[in-house]
Amino acid sequence: MNPHATLIETQSIFLVILGLNGVLMYLLPRLTRPDLYFAITVPADFRDSVEGADILRRYRLEVLIHSLIALALVLLSLGVRFTEVLSVAGLFWQVIGCFVAYLRARPRVKPHAVAPATLREADLEPRPARLPGGWALQVGPFAILAAVAVWLQLHWAQIPDRFPVHWGLDGKPNGWATRSIAGVYNPLLVGAAVCAGVGLLAYGITSWARRIQVRGGPGRSEKRFRRTMLSLLVATQYLMALLFAWVGFLALRTQEQMPSPVAVIVPVLVFTVLMVVVLIRTGQGGSRLPEYASGSPVPPAAPAGDRTPDRYWIAGIFYVNRNDPAIIVEKRFGIGYTLNFGQPVSWIVIGLLVLVPLAIALIARSHH
Length: 368
Fold this sequence. Notes:
Layout: H1 3-27, E1 36-37, E2 40-41, H2 50-76, H3 83-109, H4 134-154, E3 162-167, E4 173-178, H5 181-208, H6 216-249, H7 262-282, E5 313-314, E6 318-319, E7 328-330, E8 337-339, H8 344-365
Antiparallel strand pairs: 1-2, 3-4, 5-6, 7-8
Helix pairs in contact: 1-2, 1-3, 1-7, 2-3, 4-5, 4-6, 5-6, 5-8, 6-7
């Protein structure tokens, strides 16, 4: 593969990632629930006020500045030796810079903070822990990985004694694996662990996450939002299974030439773009869906927010509340869910999600 063409492909991928991240961070303050602004509980009409609009305008200006600096670093990397360093530095600059912009906005919002409603709504209807498509659809990703494993076993003699598993930007291999159980099946085992972790998170949303809105339009919107999130997680399982299956098939390649990253990155980017579009249209908790605006039969006396006190949120990102039995809660700045780090079960989940794939990778490394 032409090293220059590989460089152009890699930098194009970095530029797309910067663009997606910049757009998402620019829009994020308007995608949360209306009574949560920069992870602080406020009156529902505050973000549309003069003060709220001014805070948003300053935040967005900082996001734009940091994104342009990151873009300049990636473009600069096209003409210098330290290509990987500058590209990664640009991505980190954008992520850290946008996070700093978020932290700078929070003190401007805090003077307008109000106490959230202490009354919680209970859903008396049974809520079965069922994922979209049921268990039959959940088996699919593991079936894909198992089929590749069987194929590799049937063609074991065609696998080289030593084959490349990592390449530099110059297209030359710099990492190798051997024809062994750990060396050949490592990508499939890691893929199975990743798919199992995503499935665990999906199951947790159905069983461990507390409903915030139950009645009226907001309640219906939240149900739709939850179904959307679960469907995206199931789709993520299939995407991960296909990607790790593709990596598994690389063991049969007799060429040392680097495979085109486009075959992997393009599907991931297309899926990411579609997911971002869906989440933007939905909003956190379904707050951007048409039925959300129809309101509840009885308006709350105070902003509902996510019905958790602000004091239990560290920087508005990490929820730590030992007195809250909920293990999974909605994010305050972002779209989706996060763990209640005050519950020991959350740390067990984190351990399983991190340690299992890491252990498989470390075992396989001895065969590289």
